[in-house]
């Protein structure tokens, strides 16, 4: 394994075994932090920000990330990554939140696209245009979740390659891959408990041809197999990456 991604909220504690094992893995491997509760579409939670700042100082990652979504209010966390309405008002709010985040923590911040199961009538642009506009206006990095693009494309009926074409390649610092569940009704759920499917591998290859070599992480959070099986999935990602890079060089 080349590196690991740490789920930030799992380590926002004052002590105990989580921090014991955190320090051991950070000493042995390069690590980045990935959050799920910043709720960029909502209001800042000062307690969460303080705990995140302490964790960033402890880990000193090259970047950290969270999602372009809404997760609740200051009084309740729904523990889900809810999509945003893609409007000018929401864009301006998110951009201001991201700027404050970057000013406070002073390391690169990457925003991740989420998988979604509903859309809003008030949206005035598609998700990919909203994501690219936010990244440019906030001057932030992107964590491109290729599986999320594919899951949402099936659920909402858009072309995932149109989405990929709109992504500003120079802002992508990391890619996520994962497996998902196909429901009998035909829609997909981002469950992180299956191997990466063939369609996502193909989309990942296209992303590498567009973006170049970039840090890639396999997310596998449920029905977790042996570590050797996880290594096989990581090796598959390396193979797809290398073939895509070779294809890109051959066509240039």
What would CATH call the architecture? Answer: Alpha-Beta Barrel
Structural class: alpha/beta
N-end to C-end Cα span: 31 Å
- Sheet with the most strands: spatial strand order: 1-2-3-6-7-8-11
CATH class division: Alpha Beta
What's the count of strands? 11
Order of helices and strands: EHEHEEEHEHEHHEEEHEH
Tell me the Rg in angstroms: 18 Å
Shape descriptor: globular
Q: Into which percent range does the helicity of residues fall?
A: 40-55%
Ranges where pLDDT stays below 50 over 5 or more residues in a row are: none
Molecular structure report:
The protein is of the alpha/beta class. The protein has a single domain, classed as TIM Barrel (Alpha-Beta Barrel). It is 45% helix and 18% strand. It contains eight helices and eleven strands. The strands form three sheets. The protein has a seven-stranded parallel β-sheet with strand order 1-2-3-6-7-8-11. α4 runs parallel beside α6. The radius of gyration is 18 Å and the shape is globular.
In short:
This protein is an alpha/beta fold and 252 residues long. Helices cover 45% and strands 18% of the residues. The chain is globular and about 50 Å long.
Task: List its traits.
45% helix, 11 strands, 252 residues, 7-stranded parallel sheet, 8 helices, single chain, alpha/beta, TIM Barrel
Explain the layout of strands and helices.
Elements: E1 4-7, H1 17-28, E2 31-34, H2 46-59, E3 64-67, E4 70-72, E5 77-82, H3 88-105, E6 109-112, H4 127-138, E7 141-145, H5 146-156, H6 160-166, E8 172-178, E9 181-182, E10 188-189, H7 198-211, E11 215-219, H8 227-251
Parallel strand pairs: 1-2, 2-3, 3-6, 6-7, 7-8, 8-11
Antiparallel strand pairs: 4-5, 9-10
